[in-house]
């Protein structure tokens, strides 16, 4: 297996916003507590765009914990939504340092 592998990628429109969902594996370096060459982190993520800026939520766990943690992480990522802008919304291009 390569250093990283894309397992799934798709988009869905929810409440007029387009969300991209992806699931992938990344090879993890061995550590003192986790030896071996076939160690992977399993990631799920969602991304949405507003006014040219990308907003993402990503969650991951070790591959061997995926069967236990995966369903919870998938549910969490699937719940990611951009809230409608309010009168107090400040887009990143108007005050970029606010976001750091």
Automatic annotation (TrEMBL):
Organism, as annotated: Rubroshorea leprosula
One protein family per Pfam: PsbP
Protein name: PsbP C-terminal domain-containing protein
GO cellular component terms, semicolon-separated: extrinsic component of membrane; photosystem II oxygen evolving complex
Gene3D superfamilies: Mog1/PsbP, alpha/beta/alpha sandwich
Gene Ontology MF terms: calcium ion binding
Domain of life: Eukaryota
Ranges for domain PsbP C-terminal: 3-81
